[in-house]
Amino acid sequence: MTTTDVLKFAAGSVLGYRVRTLLTLLAMGIGVASVIVLTALGEGARRFVTGEFQSLGTHLLIVLPGRSETTGGPPPLFGETPRDLTLDDALALAHSRAVRRIAPIAVGSAGVSYREREREVMIIGSTAAFLDVRHLKMASGRFFSTGDPRRASPLCVLGAKLKHELFGAGPAIGHWVRIGDRRFRVVGTLASEGRSIGLDLQDIAIVPVAAAQALFDSYSLFRVLVEARSDEAIPRARRDILRIIRQRHEGEDDVTVISQDAVVATFDKIFTALTLTVVGIASISLAVAGILIMNVMLVAVSQRTAEVGLLKALGASSGSIMRVFLAEATILSLVGAAVGVAVGYAAIRLVDRVYPLLPLNMPPWAVAAAVFVAMTTGLLFGVLPARRAAKLDPVAALAGR
Amino acid sequence: MRLADISRLAMGAVIAHRSRSLLTSLGIAVGIAAVVLLTSIGEGVHRFVLQEFSQFGTNIIAVTPGKTETFGISGAQISNVRPLSLDDSAALGRLEHVVAVMPVVQGNAQVEFDGRTRRTMVLGVGSDLPQVWSMNVSLGRFLPPDDQRAPRAFVILGAKVRSELFGERNPLGQRLGVGGDRYRVIGVMEAKGQFLGFDLDDAVYVPAGKALELFNRESLMEIDLVYRAGSSAKNVRGGIERILRARHGTDDFTVTTQQQMLDVLGSVLDVLTFAVAALGGISLFVGGVGILTIMTIAVRERRAEVGLLRAIGARRAHVLQLFLFESLLLSAAGGLAGLALGLGLAMTIKVFLPSLPVHPSLEYAFLAELLAVLIGLLAGVLPARHAARLQPLDALRAE
After folding, report:
1. Rg (CA), chain A
2. Are A194 and A160 spatial neighbours (Cβ–Cβ below 8 Å)?
């Protein structure tokens, strides 16, 4: 039998039993579509999270006070140390040639009030460099000017949500607000896109770092953000930071330096593992669809016993009979996979339109992998019925037994 | 036709097409097994997390500075304009129903003994810690109930700090340097292990008043208190709010009961389990399509049989019941097999991977079986109705 004959014969069977074929395609399609949609979800979530971390800044190193002995464990994310990480420490870091700029951060919480409205929010104390290091945008007004960071000027910048809660739609710039027991003049408001993991940048007030230290009566910094000059400078910047702090802290190594890349890589790994797990679970449904294909093929073989007998009597080899049925199984799984890809793609487009915030992303390798797995499943589960057909005894088969 | 006849006929049909029935049931079985296994893992994780959190007891209420609606670290724990003081802690201790109260300050410092140093977590706590966090000393005793404003410089070691600094030597009575100050070791805690990534054994415990001095701060990070079992968390909470409001003048603190935290965690984990079950459900759905396909084929093949049945007086309802029963039989058998398979896999994981918490839940298993039967019913309806609608004459002619 020529290849065309084989294909024609198989296609005839596929088209001959429409309901059965449609249902099999449906089963395969559901499996493939779910795999594709879930991969897109996982991949989208991964890109979203790593993107969020990357948008924290470029070539960023984060210096936190305190250090734990066990490597691999979590760094001391918050808590106190006997020797503060001070503003002078932070400013000294800028002397390293690998460092482009630094932004010290003091953090606390206090009530911010304007007239009769008060809201308790996170207060961040920092310097002019904060805006650039964190890639933030202003909605209106200006950020702090580059002056002496040790001066506690009574200025503040409000997050978008805080501004809205205190001032509504009216202008905020130039007004005085009360933070804790001090008065600050609003010089700018942040653009509302500034949303970041672990910290809602919309609901904060930023004041000069010295003002925050005076407000909270504490000279310890919560973090120092260090921007290295380039990617290559990151290891040098890290060494310099540790050396400078050691010199200033009487030979004690009491800070932890985390690089942004390490954090991004960790999250990347976590999300990849998560996506693979979810997709693995979803591909169980591909196996179930494969079982169905096998079942349908078995039925097809028993229904076409007489036909097979005739073919064999006419001289068709066992090999060509096997090819016929394998071709049928492959057609079923391939078309099913195509249906699945189409449905999955449509679902992704739909989700994209309804929830534009959710970044769905269908990686091409996922489509290729899903189609490949579907085809392999079809072939694999098609082997047994095909062999059964090939082994039929022509005489018995012709007799319809 | 009697029910017995219908079931016998259906059973006969299932058995006659042995390999086909087997494969159809297998499809459902794989789906059910996936659901059972995944929910077992989900339930296991659920229990594990709740257990982690309730190991400190369930009658705990935590008071933190700053007003926040969300869980997690708030800026107020780091710095704030209205500190939560040791006096606040002492005042809460006098509240009715409260059995123990403990201020908490946490930090990181270098501890030093005999030339060996180690950077470790320093917890400033009160003398009630063994009661509040359900932890015990393995050697010596815990901090005495000193006046928190002027406590003696005693330190209790975590199990790991003890072994790192002292090895096999007896640490009791020795002088330990903590961040430059000198403390006398009076006890060693039992090994407790990790909690949410924090190694509780890699810590030293000093009086909270001393820790505030050491870290040069005014505000506590948290006040933990335990109320008498049986008294209502709501009343205690009300009492705490009343006292602190009277002392501070404003609502500048957050009260979180352990029960609240467990409830939130529990609902999050429930959603997670459900999501995982839904993922497994995709396979089950595909298995349902499999039943539908096979039943459609069966109806088509057995047209003549249906015609004959109808010709000798069987009603439409009977034919419908016949095919529905067959489909139910396939799915129920598949469901049972899947249940066995899923539970078996769960048990295997439990034996070979004890670190992965697996807890098969009977409730979910029962639901899964119910779901399988339901799927069989749904998948059977269409083909069965098709069979029932066949005209006896046409059907007979198909022979």
Report:
1. 33
2. yes
A254–B280 C-beta distance less than 8 A: no
ipTM of this complex: 0.76
Q: Give dist(CA A255, CA A246) in Å, integer.
A: 9
Strand stretches in A215-339, DSSP E: 223-228, 255-259
- Whether A272 has its CB under 8 Å from any CB of chain B: the answer is no
Q: Which residue type does A141 have?
A: G
Q: Considering only CB atoms, which chain B residues are within 8 Å of A299?
A: 20, 294, 297
Distance CA B252, CA B245 (A): 8
pLDDT in tens, B20-68: 898 899 999 999 999 898 888 888 888 888 887 777 777 889 898 887 6
Q: Which residues of A touch B45 (CB under 8 A)?
A: none
**Residue B209 token pair:** 């008043």
Burial call B50-75: b when 16+ CB within 10 Å, e when fewer: eeebeebebbbbbbbbbbbeeeeebb
Q: What is the sign, positive or negative, of the torsion defined by CA atoms of A205, A209, A211, A213?
A: positive
Number of H helices, E strands in chain B: 13, 12
Query: How far apart, in Å, are the Cα atoms of A113 and each of A21, A162, A167, A189, A314?
Result: 69, 10, 10, 15, 95
For residue B187, the model assigns a pLDDT of 93
* pLDDT value, residue B148: 80
Residue A180 has its nearest CB partner, among B81, B119, B294, at B81
Please report, for residues A37, A92, A384, B282, the alpha-carbon distance to residue A286 in angstroms, rounded to integers and kept in the order given. 14, 60, 18, 10
Q: Is the pLDDT of residue B196 over 90?
A: no
- Write out pLDDT tens, residues A41-87: 888 888 888 887 777 777 889 898 887 765 545 566 666 777 888 89
**Encoding tokens for residue A14?**
């596929």
Q: Which residue of B has its CA nearest to A21?
A: B293
Say yes or no for a CB contact (<8 Å) between A73 and B67.
no
Which residues are CB-neighbours of A350 under 8 A, at least 6 positions away? none
Judge contact between A136 and A219, C-beta under 8 A.
Answer: no
Q: What is the pLDDT of residue A99?
A: 92
Nearest CA in chain A to B286: A27
pLDDT of B175 reads 92
Report d(CA A318, CA A393) in Å as an integer. 10
B290: closest chain A residue by CA: A292
pLDDT digits (tens, 9 = 90+) for B257-279: 888 888 888 888 888 888 888 88
Q: Which position has the token pair 């049931």? A: B25
Mean pLDDT, chain B, as a whole number? 86
Q: Is the dihedral of CA A16, A17, A19, A24 positive or negative?
A: negative
User: Which one-letter DSSP state was computed for residue B202?
Assistant: S
| H/E run at residue A182 | strand A182-190
A81:B107 CB<8 A: yes
For residue B359, the model assigns a pLDDT of: 83
Question: For residue A39, which of A268, A341, A337, A275 has the smallest C-alpha distance?
Answer: A275
Say whether residue A344 is in contact with chain B using an 8 A CB cutoff: no
Query: Which has the minimum average pLDDT: A99-103, A359-363, A387-391, B233-237?
Result: A359-363
Q: Indicate the helix (H) or strand (E) that contains A186.
A: strand A182-190
Q: How many helices (H) and strands (E) does chain A have?
A: 12, 10
- Residue A337's identity, in one-letter code, is A
Place of tokens 């870091």: A93
Distances (CA, A) of A213 to A133, A151, B45: 21, 11, 43
Mean predicted lDDT score pLDDT of chain A: 85
The closest of B235, B75, B202 to A72, measured between CA atoms, is: B202
Neighbours of A101 (CB within 10 A): 18
A211, A224, A262: which is closest to A94 by C-alpha?
A224
Chain A residues near residue B20 by CB distance under 8 angstroms: 295, 298-299
Which residues on B lie below 8 Å from A285 (Cβ)? Answer: 31, 282-283, 285-286
